[in-house]
Amino acid sequence: MTNSDLSSTPATQDYAARITQLLVVFTASIFLSAALLFAVQPMFTKLVLPRLGGAPAVWSVAMVFFQAALLAGYGYAHLLTHYAPGRRSVIIHLGLLVIACFWLPLSIAANWGRPPEVGESFWLLGLFAVSIGPPFFALAANAPLLQAWFARTDHPSANDPYFLYAASNIGSFLALLSYPIVIEPMISLTTQTWLWATGFIILMLLIAGCGYLLWHSPDHAPAAAPVTSTTKTEESAPPTWGSIVRWVFLAAVPSGLLVAVTAHISTDVAAVPLLWVIPLALYLLTFVIVFSRQPIIPHWLVVEIQPVFILALVAVIVYEPIRLIVGVMAVHLAVFFVITLMCHGELASRRPAPRYLTSFYMWMSFGGVVGGISAGLVSPHVFNWIAEYPILITLAVLCRPGLEWPKTTWQQILVFGSIILAVIGLFLFRQFEQDIDLATYNAMLGGLLILTVLFWRHPVPFAAIIATVLLAHHYVVEGSSTLTLRSFFGVMKVNETSNGRFRTLSHGTTLHGGQRIRDNQGNPVTGRPAPTMYYYDGSAIAQGMDAARTVKGGGPMSYAVIGLGTGSLICRSQPGDKAVYYEIDPLMVRLSRDMGMFTFLKECGQDVPIVMGDARLTLTDAPDGSYDLIVVDAFTSDAIPIHLLTKEAMAIYKSKLSPNGIVLIHISNRHLELASVVTGIAAANDMVTRVSESGDVVEDDNDYKFLGTVTISARKDEDFGPLAKSQYWELQRPNPRQRVWTDDYSNIVGAMIRQLRQ
558-608 pLDDT, tens per residue? Predict the structure, then answer.
């Protein structure tokens, strides 16, 4: 009988078919599970985002929840395979999936109130837990559990099921990329939740199929790696505590960087799914690469090039050679990808035998939680600046293999002597209150960066130099602030100009307010302060407020301001006016009213009401027709919260306006073109819009008077008063080819492209 005759026997054919079924069903289950697991992250976070003012920190805290729930799922899978291995675990896990169905379709938990003024992070964690906790927990357990089931089958690849982890991450990667590109633009959030629920039911059927195949497959307990008669490989032994600590460290650093880098790139642009999923997709892509049977990027190459990328990032941070936000984002994301690929490559090279698979995933997930909590929850309460980012960059160097000190004395003296001299120099400059000239500063830090060439393969001194440069940069550039405070909504810095004439407030990288505190002769300014920045007499915002007053008849008017800042606009009020501020950040209230740093509220409106909370929620409590003017002047660094620029938001503003009222929106932005966005959302509410680029205003940087881009929208053109005839307030026509922004749709990329074209 020939080999071909043997291969065609019914038993052989049945075996081949069953082996194919095993691979297809298990792979499909892991793929769909991962896709659902990661599609729900931007979907549900976007649903929650408006409740906390569109703050970038919402995603950071959401990531902590997702990582913690992932750890819980991995822990459950580990315990289940340990105490109820094989077929018993099938019944238990299917029961869990059935229970999770009671949370479908996903929605924000009923009766979950408005966020508190303190403890927003913990409130948000609770909201996620009660709203999507059980389904997410069940999904989180699938990847390690299904791999453990697969390892107990008689499939030829059962002795090394780690390749299924690559399939899991491919599903995650594709789900994340498709969300901002396909799902978010085309499908409403409500429909998304129903489609997700349908996918969850299909996944249950697939997992039941996996259980059926496992049940009818010979039960093979997963074995350790093969051991020859002459050698006992390390893979066959249980993981040591040293190995576990290394797993945790290698997982924690990229996880923390994921949170830090996402917050960094979204703070200046917008807190939107597109900017959330790009770093997360890159993060998952590294898992796909390193756990593939034949990685497309060799690990040795990644280890070699990592220092080059880190030096490039440090140079961009210190010297700021790139001005375009797209270029800056590209550098941060490229370095993040290389660092993460290196760390995860080290993890993959240290993976244990299949019998310890669930333990490996559990400890790796624990490291992810440690990194996420450190960057997303602990750092904002420990540091008053974004210290976690440079710390994590430094720790990434220490993730490299070969941790050892330079062996030669001259190398040790060179590296530590240079660092000590740099630190002493910076200290002396600060002690004697001397400004460091740019050339000296650049030479000092540049010399340290050049020094790293001598320690290319010595992670410890390399990390020490990188840490020194980044901390010195913060110390010189940012550390001289009069006051630096940090809240859930970001970092606020109060500074005085070098001539002592102005005190400014900045959030992130952008100035948000200022006040003249001394005149040109250096004498203190007292009494009613004159608004500066974008609010001075003759500015576009001042013109808009004057127009609303003219339409009102010149008498007192009622107006609301979304976004407190320093409170400048209250000093544009007149006797009899009724003003209300809407502000979400209690820290901003402290800075503008309670700490004496700015006196606009004290001198012009001591008793002006400040309504705390997200304006989309709190403004709805105001009676319809309450305001003659609504000013939207809310920013997070340079980004305007997207949920304040949607069709639904404009509908709320319109309902609160008096019959001839005006909505004025400050849309000055370095990265996004937003005038057409406002025009579209106004037209969708039967309103007309004019825009001013401050063409009739004289800018004076020395006097802190800046140009700005401002839109005004009203029910009809006559409601703009004198501005309807001004050549500097151009009437806008909605672009029929540009889709209107809604709570379900926004196009940040389009806004960035339009801005680049201007």
Answer: 999 999 999 999 999 999 999 999 998 888 999 888 888 899 999 998 789
Contact of 563 with 533, CB cutoff 8 Å: no
**Residue from 739, 729, 745 nearest 680 by CA:** 739
- What is the structure's pLDDT at 580? 96
CB of 190 within 8 A of CB of 20? no
Task: Write the DSSP string, 272-313.
Answer: -HHHHHHHHHHHHHHHHHHTSSS-SS-HHHHHHHHHHHHHHH
What are the tens digits of pLDDT across the range 66-111?
A: 989 988 998 898 889 888 877 788 899 999 999 999 999 999 988 7
Strand 610-612 to strand 578-583: parallel, antiparallel, or no bridges (unpaired)?
parallel
Separation between Cα atoms, residue 200 and residue 188, nearest integer Å: 18
Nearest to 591 by CA among 703, 478, 507, 477: 507
Span 158-173, mean pLDDT?
A: 75
Nearest to 684 by CA among 735, 754, 744, 727: 735
Instruction: List pLDDT tens digits, range 705-722.
Output: 888 899 999 999 999 999
Report all structural domains of the chain as residue ranges with CATH numbers, in order of start.
Answer: 19-221+240-382 (1.20.1250.20), 409-480 (no CATH), 537-695+708-757 (3.40.50.150)
**Cα dihedral across residues 364, 367, 372, 377: positive or negative:** positive
Count CB atoms within 10 A of the CB of residue 208: 16
748-757 vs 273-290: helix crossing angle, rounded to 10: 110
Give the SS3 label for residue 118.
Answer: coil
Nearest to 26 by CA among 158, 140, 224, 220: 158
pLDDT surpassing 80 at residue 442: no
| More confidently predicted of 2 and 351 | 351
Mean pLDDT (the chain, rounded)? 84
pLDDT at residue 242, rounded to an integer: 87
pLDDT value, residue 457: 74
Report the side by side order of strands in the sheet with 558-562.
610-612, 578-583, 558-562, 627-632, 657-666, 710-714, 688-692, 730-731
The answer to whether 251 touches 343, Cβ cutoff 8 Å, is yes
Band (222; pLDDT cuts 50, 70, 90): low
What pLDDT score does 541 carry?
A: 94
Spatial separation of the C-alpha atoms in residues 514 and 599, rounded to whole Å = 10
583, containing H or E segment: strand 578-583
In whole angstroms, what separates CA 272 from the centre of its chain?
8
For the chain, the maximum distance between any two Cα atoms, rounded to a whole number of angstroms, is: 108
Tokens of 663: 């909505």
| CA 45 – CA 59 distance, rounded (Å) | 7
Q: Is 352 helix (H, G, I), strand (E, B) or coil?
A: coil
Query: Do 254 and 243 touch, CB atoms closer than 8 A?
Result: no
Provide the sign of the torsion angle of the four alpha carbons 468, 470, 471, 474, taken in this order.
Answer: positive
CB 546 within 8 A of CB 712: no
The neighbouring-strand residues paired with 484 are 493
Q: How many CB atoms lie within 10 A of CB 710?
A: 27
Across the strands, what pairs with 561? Answer: 581, 631
Q: Is the pLDDT confidence value at 319 over 90? A: no
> SS3 sequence, 43-60?
HHHHHHHHHHCCCCHHHH
Band (345; pLDDT cuts 50, 70, 90): very high
Q: Tell me, what's the pLDDT at 722?
A: 93
DSSP letter for each residue of 685-732? TT-EEEEE--TT---BGGGTB----EEEEESSGGGGGGGGG-TTSEEP
pLDDT tens for 4-29 read 444 557 667 666 777 888 888 988 99
